[in-house]
Amino acid sequence: MNLPVWVPDPLHEAIRDLVRARHAACRDVRRARIRIQAFLLRNDLRFVGKAWSHRHRMWLCNCGFAHPAQQIAFQTYLNALEYEEKRKFELEAQIKEAIELSPWSGLVRALQALKGVGPIVAATIVAEVGDFTASPIRVSSSPISGLPLGNIRAAAASGRAGSPKPEMRPRAAFSAKQHGITGRRQKSGGG
Description:
The protein is an all-alpha fold. It has helices at residues 10-42, 54-61, 68-100, 105-111, 119-129, 136-140, 142-145, 149-158, 165-178. The longest helix is centred in the first third of the chain and has 33 residues, at 10-42.
């Protein structure tokens, strides 16, 4: 059986490249943080508190080392982290701007109605999935997400980013019925 293949257009491919560049920047930020933590452990320095919080960053800036070479190496690691975080932030801003100007802005807003889905996650989904209607495999996976695909399409077509909750209620009601949850409280015996 031959399934239709969706070929992304140049704009879609460009947004996909931008999303993947941001993913690479996230990996680079993680690596820079790990490098700093390893350096501190080698020098027996430990921070008590939440890592990468404002207090932790102030502590990092005040770390001193016995040898100037160590201080130079540590500062190089801090500078690399700062550069990678700035690059990640700039890519996120570019993704948001590119999506707002794209034909998928309505779809991205509709996806953001889902809990835990922000603009970057929604843009990543749109960039990587592509055309939600191109393949029966993609269409059949939409109930797994908890949101019927038709609702995403309708929201995207109308340009509204309304909450998908009303459309999801029948599914929740069906699930509650399966588990014997009625939503009505039993009256205590007595009149």
